[in-house]
């Protein structure tokens, strides 16, 4: 008897999201419940939190008994998802007498995979909703990607600074510097709160901005020497939210 079965046509939403998660986390627990599929975990260094949700409405078929937890190796899961063709449907299933996740790809052919479920001890994970931020903005996803990738050429960290009507992302290396400034005439769509400034590690941000594949607009919240919350939301479909610890400046 199946305790979980879901059929998905838009496989790219799941595949791209798992790809981003894999950049930060090696293994974790996916949950299936009445609302959809979700994943919440911290990286090993406890510098970042990943909060992923895939709404049940995006599935052609979605059946679950209560709450089902599936501990998986993220890289192994991604390797299988990458085998889906552009026109394939994806079916995920779990039976109550099985210890493996069934993965079926339905297209011109039908292909089946199974992967073992892992016993993973879940620690307490900070909620992205638990913090109150002094600054919040909405910005076009490509703008954040540009600022992060420019800065990564120069340094291993970036200063994110909000002014009265603009966002500035800048960094200085040994002999070089990089700066991106954007206001409401450009890719900055909204800005509320008071001016803030904080420094963040670029190795994490470079991985996080890959989630921009699922949403055209990102929401960025932060404060002075405070964690950043970075959210990519495709309404009524999928969302990936991150918390990132700051590098506190002297």
Question: Please, could you describe this protein's structure?
Answer:
With 250 residues, the chain is of the alpha+beta class. It folds into two domains: 2-116, Proliferating Cell Nuclear Antigen; 135-240, Proliferating Cell Nuclear Antigen, CATH 3.70.10. 16% of the residues lie in helices and 47% in strands. It is built from four helices and 18 strands. The chain has a nine-stranded antiparallel beta sheet. Strands 5-1-7-8-9 form a five-stranded antiparallel beta sheet, with helices on one face. A four-stranded antiparallel beta sheet has the order 13-12-11-15. Helix 3 runs antiparallel to helix 4 (202-208). The longest helix has 14 residues, at 11-24. The chain is elongated. 34% of the residues are buried.
Number of helices: 4
* Tally of DSSP β-strands: 18
Q: Stretches where pLDDT falls below 50 for ≥5 residues? A: none
Assigned CATH architecture of the largest domain: Box
Nearest-angstrom radius of gyration?
Answer: 19 Å
How large a portion of the residues is in β-strands, by DSSP E?
over 45%
Question: What's the helical proportion of residues?
Answer: 10-25%
Order of strands side by side in the largest beta sheet?
6-2-3-4-18-17-16-10-14
| Average predicted confidence as pLDDT | 93
Structural domain count? 2
User: How does the overall form come out from the CA principal axes?
Assistant: elongated
Give helix and strand order, one letter per element, not per position.
EHEEEEEHEEEEHEEEEEHEEE
Here the CATH topology of the largest domain equals: Proliferating Cell Nuclear Antigen
How is the biggest beta sheet arranged?
A: 9 strands, antiparallel
What top-tier CATH class of the largest domain fits best? Alpha Beta
The end-to-end span amounts to: 59 Å
Category from helices, strands and their pairing: alpha+beta
């Amino acid at each position: 008897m199946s305790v979980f079965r879901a059929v998905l046509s838009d496989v790219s939403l799941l595949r791209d999201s798992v790809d981003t998660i894999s950049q930060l986390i090696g293994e974790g627990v996916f949950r299936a419940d009445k609302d959809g599929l979700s994943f919440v975990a911290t990286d090993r260094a406890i510098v970042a939190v990943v909060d992923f949700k895939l709404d049940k409405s995006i599935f052609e078929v979605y059946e679950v008994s209560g709450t089902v937890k599936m501990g998986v190796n993220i890289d192994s899961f991604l390797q299988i998802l990458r085998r889906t063709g552009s026109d394939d449907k994806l079916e995920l299933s779990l039976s109550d007498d099985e210890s493996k996740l069934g993965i079926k790809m339905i297209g011109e052919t039908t292909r089946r995979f199974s992967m073992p479920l892992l016993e993973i001890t879940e620690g307490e994970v900070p909620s992205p909703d638990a913090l109150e931020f002094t600054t919040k903005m909405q910005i076009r996803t490509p703008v954040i990607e540009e600022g992060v990738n420019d800065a990564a050429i120069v340094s291993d960290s970036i200063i994110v600074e909000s002014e009265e009507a603009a966002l500035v992302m800048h960094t200085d290396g040994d002999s070089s510097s990089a700066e991106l400034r954007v206001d409401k005439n450009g890719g900055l769509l909204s800005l509320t709160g008071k001016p803030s400034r904080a420094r963040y590690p670029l190795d994490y941000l470079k991985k996080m901005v890959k989630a921009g594949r699922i949403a055209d607009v990102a929401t960025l919240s932060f404060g002075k020497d405070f964690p950043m919350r970075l959210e990519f939301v495709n309404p009524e479909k999928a969302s990936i939210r991150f918390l990132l610890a700051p590098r506190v400046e002297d």
